[in-house]
Specification:
Layout (H helix, E strand, L loop, with lengths): L12 E5 L6 E5 H42 L7 H11 L3 E3 L1 H6 L15 E3 L2 H16 L1 H4 L29 H10 L21
Antiparallel strand pairs: 1-2, 3-4
Keywords: Membrane, Transmembrane, Transmembrane helix
Family: Belongs to the ustYa family.
Pfam families: UstYa
Amino acid sequence: MAPQSKDKYFPVSYTEDTDSLGDTVVYDTETLLQQSEKQTTRKRDLLPVLTGVCALLNIALLVTIIFLLRHPEPFITDQRCARQLSVTVRHVSISPEIMTAIDKSNSNAVQLPDGNYLGATEVFHQLHCLNLIRQHSYKEYYDVDGRRPPGLTDSPATLRKHLDTKHKCRKFDKIVEWEKKNQIKDPVRPEDAVVLQTPPTR
């Protein structure tokens, strides 16, 4: 039996028909090998890129896990707002020099036994009021059994403009630090103080 020719199993050319009736594309063995080598090289070059992307994704995941461990409440919640406001909404002791610097009259201010004046930082009071307005916007959630949040019972849930205060941009952390430093932790009620009746909440 005569041996079969190699050309029958290893063609030296490959013809691809195209849409054109008269044109054909011919690929010889060398061209096919070159194309195969290019594809292999392209895949080999793509491997470091994919490895780098996977490494970046792993780093991002690790950073996210560390952030969540250090900040268990990264999102704003009612409990977080309550804790933040309860820590910062405090009365502070304001010296006469600061009263002069902020152009506030002491004629109707409450004077403390040490000569300073009773005050509060506006930003925390304003944040507290904005939080009440936010709660009023979702009455179906916060108005449980007809009990509305304090502050929304007798007054309309609107912003009241007060343009008599000078404002200046400051770092919020510095304001919190100053607030805690000047807090009146153990307030003493003056002997001649008039105790007002707490308004009903319903």
